[in-house]
Design brief:
The chain is mainly α. Helix content is about 70%, strand content about 0%. It has a single domain, classed as Glycerol uptake facilitator protein (Up-down Bundle), CATH 1.20.1080. Helix 1 runs antiparallel to helix 2, helix 2 crosses helix 6 and helix 5 packs antiparallel against helix 6. The two termini are about 25 Å apart.
């Protein structure tokens, strides 16, 4: 229960910052920096307790790589989705009256961007936060937060920059992405996480 609460809280603040910096009046070009920074500090805060996934694709990647208990998969994802929906409701309250136009991305480019950068995120998490050689390092949160920041700057204009099924659900509830496109994020993000686990296990065959 303790771990699930941390996952819910971390995902809540990640999605809250996304909404408050993207929905007008937002932070403009600084939004990805704020989003990456919030993820970074929440990773540092929650890492010792839950592993600080805050993303169903990351949870799937860690599970497939043998770095997270299988029994945690469904409860973690449930907590992440719950945190996201609560944050979305908070954003809608705080930004009541703001004009929101739902993004309708082109399916193929959006799918490719989402799978590539979700792969990058999960791959970074696996390498900086789960290996014996990287154990005890002080940079894991910075690496994870900066990955999301860079991905948001690079791919946000193409797909909206979710790289996380919980974030995708949250921004859809906010009205930032049309519901008909939600499948792109769920499929691409989970596939990216699974691919990262496969590459990680292939490149680190001796890791336990």
């Amino acid at each position: 229960m303790r771990k699930l609460l941390v996952e819910g809280v971390g995902t809540f603040f990640l999605v809250l910052v996304i909404g408050l910096t993207v929905v007008a009046p937002g932070a403009g070009a600084m939004a990805p920096l704020a989003i990456g920074a919030m993820l970074m500090v929440m990773v540092y805060a929650g890492g010792p307790i839950s592993g600080a996934h805050y993303n169903p694709a990351v949870t799937l990647a860690l599970t497939l790589a043998g770095k997270s208990p299988k029994n945690d998969l469904v409860p973690y994802i449930g907590a992440q989705f719950a945190g996201s929906v609560l944050a979305s409701m908070a954003v809608k309250f705080l930004k009541e009256g703001s004009a929101v136009v739902a993004m309708e991305p082109q399916a193929a480019p959006a799918f490719l961007v989402e799978i590539l950068f979700t792969f990058a995120l999960a791959y970074v998490v696996l390498n900086v936060a789960t290996t014996k050689k990287a154990a005890g390092n002080s940079y894991f949160g910075l690496a994870i937060g900066f990955t999301v920041m860079a991905a948001a700057y690079a791919g946000g204009g193409i797909s909206g920059g979710a790289f996380n099924p919980a974030v995708a659900l949250g921004v859809t509830v906010m009205g930032l992405i049309a519901p008909a496109y939600l499948w792109i994020y769920f499929v691409a993000n989970l596939a990216g996480g699974a691919l990262a686990a496969t590459v990680f296990r292939t490149t680190n065959p001796d890791l336990k």
